[in-house]
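Fresh eyes needed here. Kindly weigh in on this sequence plus C-alpha cells:
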Amino acid sequence: MVSQCHSVWKLEHLPGKLTSHHAHVNIAAQWDGLSIEEDAERKIGWLLKMIFVGTASVVAYQFFPYMGDNLMQQSVSLLQVKDPLFKRMGASRLARFAIDDERRMRIVEMGGAAELLNMLGTAKDQRTRKEALKALAALSFSDEAVGALYRSGAISVIKSTPDYLEDADFMKYKSNLLKKFQDLTYDVQS
C-alpha cells in the first residue's frame, strides 16, 4: 500500500501532470510574485521621486538668498505696501537675505533698515511687529548696520514696541536688539 501511495504521489507531481488545484495555486504564486515585484518597483520609484523633489526644494531654498540685489530691492519695496501680509513677506525675505555683513549693509543702503523701523513703529498687529523685529535682529549681526539703526532712531522705536510676554521669540528679538545696542555702547536709556 505504501508503494501504491508513493506512485500516486509521483504521478500527481510530475511536470505537466498537475491537478487543477495545483495549477491554480502555481499561477497565483507567479501572479503574486510579479505583483510584489511591480509593487516594490513602483514604491522605489516614488521614493526616488520624493528624494529628488526634496533635494531640489532644499537646493532652491538655499539658493534663494543669493539671487541678487533685484530681489532685495523688491523685498524693501514690499515693506512700503499698506497690506501687513506683504510687509511681513518683505521683512521675512530681508531676514533671509541678511546672511553676511556685505548683504546686511546693502539692505541698509537700500533703505531696508529705515523701512523696517517704520514698519515696526506703525504696525497694528503683533505678527507684523514680530517679523520686523526678526529682520532687524538679522541685520544687527553687523556692527555697521547697528550703527545705522541707531542713527535712524531704532532704540526709541524698539523700546516703544509693546511687549508680548506670551511670545518668547518676540521678546527674544526685542531684548537681543536692545542688548546689542548696549554692548556697542549706544545709549539705550534715551
Q: What stands out?
A: The CA atoms of residues 84 and 176 lie 24 Å apart. Residues 1-14 have pLDDT under 50 and may be disordered.
